[in-house]
Amino acid sequence: MTTPRVEADLGWALGRVTRAHMRTAQDVVSDLPGGPRGYHVLAGIEQGPPRTQLALARSLGVDRTVMTYLLDELEGAGLVTRRPDPADRRARQVLLTDVGRERLCALERRLREAEDELLAPLEPAERDQLRTLLQRLATGGDGASACQVAAEIQEMQADGTC
């Protein structure tokens, strides 16, 4: 028996898996200020040395005004804090609080469990291989971060192209 043509189509398969993943991820982060975008902000802050609000907004593809409101919400929830940038007192660096770091770790754990459930038809080694291959495809070797790719997907959804 052959696979029906539509089910053999890469675009169809990627779209179906992407939609299932986005529903699952939304469920995991639904109680976080900003939902998935809030999660990406927390994950973006965790990567590397402290960055300014503007640098963080640019790396995530978030409008700087939207970033300010999002950081206000995350700060109000005790997940992040802002401090003057020692190199430029007019700029603000964004840092995770201990509570924010714990929340990020818990969310990452829950997301991994949800992803493993989504990928249950695959063997554990196949799951790891799929993640590696998709990350390589998503970044295209151009140094794009996972946060940048996620922001592009969100933009596509907002435009109705995804």
TrEMBL record:
Pfam families registered for this protein in UniProt = MarR (PF01047)
Q: Which residues form the HTH marR-type domain?
A: 7-139
Q: Which UniProt keywords apply?
A: DNA-binding, Transcription, Transcription regulation
Xref: InterPro entries: HTH_MarR-typ, MarR/SlyA-like, WH-like_DNA-bd_sf, WH_DNA-bd_sf
| Protein name, entry field | HTH marR-type domain-containing protein
